[in-house]
Design a protein that fits this description.
The complex is a heterodimer. By secondary structure, chain A is mainly β. Chain B has no helices and eleven strands. In chain B, strand 5 and strand 6 form a beta hairpin. The chains are: A mainly beta, B mainly beta.
């Protein structure tokens, strides 16, 4: 069980409102949960991450929450702007040898004026 | 500038041809990866490689193979391309399994 599920696949929000993306993972050994943003024609870039010793992390309008018991983590973008429109990917990894970071299926966020 | 560099940016080829994509990272990382991103934007790991271990995603067809001369280079060879190989191939690197992954700009492959 190494799957990372991500929902929703498409999210359309009004400018200024908040957007939330949820991910679940299967591997209980996972302890690192990054989020990547991919703008059109660009490569994915890390925007925020959280490790399993934390339940919440916040930076520059981004909040990530981690619920280890439920194997669930989420990204919340407050006060969305048109520049937030992009693909967002969650990921999960563990320190176990022979593993690699698994990505969620992606969420296309559209922020409309 | 330190980053992950890929060449070519685009490649169009016919079914059955062999192609090779290059990737170099100047970040001093120990681990490199190849991902395939399809038209639905799904990111699928193909290979994970450091100087000690090659991990192959079991779903990757055998016509794909990674080639590494040192820890800063990881090329991707496709022996006989098929139409379903059309995608963007992203090379990446990281300093470890539990750290940020840095991606290159990608190589867009179109198989006609």
């Amino acid at each position: 069980g190494e799957q990372v599920e991500q929902l929703p696949s498409i999210l359309r929000v009004q400018e200024g409102s908040s957007a939330s993306i949820n991910c679940t993972y299967e591997n209980s050994a996972s302890n690192y949960f990054p989020w990547y943003k991919q703008e059109p024609g660009e490569n994915p870039k890390l925007i925020i991450d959280i490790r399993s010793n934390m339940e919440r992390k916040q930076t520059q309008g981004l909040i990530v929450l981690l619920d280890k018991k439920a194997k669930r983590f989420s990204l919340h973008i407050t006060d969305t702007q048109p520049g937030d429109s992009a693909m967002y990917f969650c990921a999960a990894s563990s320190a176990n040898s022979g593993t690699y970071q698994r990505f969620g299926t992606g969420t296309k966020l559209q922020v409309v004026p | 500038e330190t980053a992950v560099f890929q060449t070519p940016n685009y490649h169009v080829t016919q079914v059955g041809n062999e192609v090779s994509f290059n990737c170099k990272q100047t970040l001093g990382h120990d681990t490199m990866y190849w991902y395939k991103q399809d038209s639905k934007k799904l990111l699928k790991i193909m290979f994970s490689y450091n100087n000690k271990q090659l991990i192959v995603n079991e779903t990757v067809p055998r016509r794909f193979s990674p080639q590494s001369s040192d820890k800063a280079h990881l090329n991707l060879r496709i022996k006989s391309v098929e139409p379903e190989d059309s995608a963007v191939y992203l090379c990446a690197s990281s300093s470890g399994q539990n750290t940020e992954v840095f991606f290159g700009k990608g190589t867009r492959l179109t198989v006609v």
